[in-house]
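Data card: per-record layout.
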Amino acid sequence: MVKPKSIKNEDVERIREQLSHRDGIIFDLSLETGLRISDILNLKVKDISILLTVRESKTKKWKTVKLSENLYERLDRLKPSNAKGDYFVFRSKNKPYAHIDRSTYHRHLKKACRALEIDFSAHSTRKLYAWNVFEISENIFDVQKSLQHEFITTTAKYLDIDIAQLINSELRSRKALQHNHKNVDRQQKDTQLQSF
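The structure for this 196-residue chain is written out next.
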């Protein structure tokens, strides 16, 4: 697996300013949900809800995420008033019953990338989402679950974490915890013996 390129939270506003309204919503959906671009582009009008439920095309797993009020309203306003439930939200101008092509969105991101002199890709937003989850939870397994990765090693690559270092750190933490429990047990036994 190729490691996704990184962007920082500080870059988000600058990137968003370079994108069209529609591409900005796609960008924000990826940042807020961690969904892959292909899954975002496959969204249909009937899918739009504050609780967005998507069947991921890569994993075939269902994922439900709560959208922020702001993003939900922006997404809802993007829907044409005459759109039927099976219409794609991000429709192609040339093919009204198809969604925009991934290459179109990638091309727009590359243009923003050049203008800002930042090296990122559509998948960089998923990586930033992973980092934001990790900063809140401080638990790589929460990130793995949120991204629906099968293997923790994939999640570690997203977070630029050396998996061997992570395992050693976890083992050291568990040994320290066991040592602390033994000390507490000894202190409790000493206290009980002194009370006799």
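Known properties of this structure: The domain at 9-157 is CATH 1.10.443.10 (hpI Integrase; Chain A). The beta strands are 51-55, 62-66.

See the next section for split statistics.
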